Amino acid sequence: MRLKTAISNELDANAAIEHIKLSISIEGIKAIVCYYTEAYCNQNLSNVLSRHFPNIPLIGCSSCKGLMTESGCHCGPVIGVMAIYDNSPYSAYGTANVSLTDCNDFKQAVNSAINKALSKANRVGEVPDFIILHATPGNEERIIEAIDAQFGTQVPIIGGSAADNNIAGNWSVFNEDNESSEALTLLVGFPSIPIATGLSVGYSPTEYYGLVTKAHGRYIYSINKKPAKQIYQEWLRVHSGLTILDEYLFDYVSEFPIGNVVGYIGSQPYFKLSHPIRITEDDALEMFSESKVGETITLMTGSKKHLVERASRVVKDANTKNYNESEMVGGILIFCAGSMLHLGEQMTEVYKKISAQMNKQPFICPFTFGEQGKLVGGENAHGNLMISSAIFYDSEHYL
């Protein structure tokens, strides 16, 4: 198995894919993973790719302002693809895209998508080695719950929520059959080599924590029976000395997100992160992920230096699993758009550290509005300001 990436900044989608085809041979491709900025969302990219790469499973997701590959940080407009070459007769890949417009039964929608993808892979009734999941923002928790229920076990997920440049809904996801601004798309993978996946927090808990006492969906109304706005701003003020007006909250949340305690390793808690969007008129916090009544939440903190280092640590941590010191073939990383925007020009440092840790092997990395993957305790979860990773390893040394 091998991986190959290519990018294009051509504004016309057809010209961009023609440019990409110059770098990628179609022979032997088992699947294509594609990330792109919002300039291409209305250019029927699914159809364009399918014409140029017929009868190949495709999965695509829009990215905020750019993406990364082993060749650098690429600002939009840009399209990037990763071709998966896997000539083993035992490998298989299949995709599906299901609309979520007016969806009120996510279990049925997810089951339909999984069954379609397994059927295309000719692996009906089997459990895949991993799933690449991309959905438009809003219902990621329901989707993950349905995936776990479908298989009765937690299949490793590598995922990210579709993004645009300004949180204006100019996002989309696609497979070879369809493209939509309100849908989920997934790829089931049965690769010929092992894969290590993970979902990394990379922030540290502060001493400030509380109990969610009123919440609904992605709104936290009260913490410790007090207005959520009051508690969050009090935590910020006492911890950092910051007194933040409501309208400037978004400028600081990438440094001070909320951590939801998911479980414990020994006596140490581990977290998923939740990104506040705004303070509502009734002093609630609107979030990019869900919190439930009775959950313990903590003010988290992460300096820019810490954020620069953590992406390469994700790859390093995957390597500690080492698979008998197998060599990396390449990987897919999902990096939060909020962290990317917070770091700005320092993303060049992030790229250099990831590239060095990947030993110059191919990788592709979009910037998403939510990240999905398997936490250290084994749970699949959706969070914010996180890094999801899937690293492929050479099977010749795998015993």
Automatic annotation (TrEMBL):
<feature type="domain" description="FIST">
    <location>
        <begin position="27"/>
        <end position="227"/>
    </location>
</feature>
<dbReference type="Pfam" id="PF08495">
    <property type="entry name" value="FIST"/>
</dbReference>
<keyword id="KW-0418">Kinase</keyword>
<keyword id="KW-0808">Transferase</keyword>
<protein>
    <submittedName>
        <fullName>Histidine kinase</fullName>
    </submittedName>
</protein>
<dbReference type="Pfam" id="PF10442">
    <property type="entry name" value="FIST_C"/>
</dbReference>
<dbReference type="GO" id="GO:0016301">
    <property type="term" value="F:kinase activity"/>
</dbReference>
<feature type="domain" description="FIST C-domain">
    <location>
        <begin position="228"/>
        <end position="375"/>
    </location>
</feature>
<dbReference type="InterPro" id="IPR013702">
    <property type="entry name" value="FIST_domain_N"/>
</dbReference>
<dbReference type="InterPro" id="IPR019494">
    <property type="entry name" value="FIST_C"/>
</dbReference>
